Amino acid sequence: MASTTSVMSLKRIHREIVDVQKEDMGDIKLAPTDDLHLWKGSLPGPEGSVYEGGSFDVDIVLAQDYPFTAPRVVFKTRIYHMNISDQGNICIDILKNNWSPALSLFKVMLSLSSLLTDPNPKDPLVPGIASQYVQNRKLHDDTARRWTQLYARPKPPPPTVVPTLKGKGKQKAPVTPVTGGDLIVISDDDSPERPRRKRKASVEADAPTRNRRRTRSSHQDDIIVIEDD
């Protein structure tokens, strides 16, 4: 009997996987893990609620005889809610005595989203929060929003790293054309002891061919190149 129930459970789970892929779930996320009896879900804080802007993760554990036994759902994200304990346990009727095999995991997620919008102070799991909700609504709402900011804000995406091209060696100053009879030579050494120098070089204007002469200065790093056109 146990194996028959397990086969029926797997068939139902596979059917729900297909149904979830067809559903327009909006920002709700729901998917099985490698273990088909363990699902992961995520709920966005409903717009206009004190949980807006948050993202709440849940774990869903299915019994071997699912769907004849209600799934066990636990909040993994901390939340300030009268129907959800610090351990993430949830007090909602469809997960207790009102469960039916006709319900699905997607409908469970929708019910949890509704619970965030409309908590039930008549059946609280945390009586202190329920009392505060009834007696001091502003303090309750401010606390719930603060918890949402602290514990339920979605993690920002990792920064995009833009690769940079690193040059090999020191970048040299661009070469400018020489005009007239002056040639300016700039040393590669940028130290303050080696200032830029301006030297006078004679150019033979009437040379019949193009000659190239190299003259080394008194400083080893400085080479004067003269081209005669």
TrEMBL record:
Residues 151-229 are annotated as: Disordered. Its EC number is 2.3.2.23. Gene3D superfamilies: Ubiquitin Conjugating Enzyme (3.10.110.10). It comes from the Eukaryota. Keywords: ATP-binding, Nucleotide-binding, Transferase, Ubl conjugation pathway. One of its GO terms (molecular function) is ATP binding. The keyword ATP-binding applies. It is an enzyme of class 2 (transferase). Residues 8-153 form the UBC core domain. SUPFAM superfamilies: UBC-like (SSF54495). This is E2 ubiquitin-conjugating enzyme. It comes from Armillaria gallica.
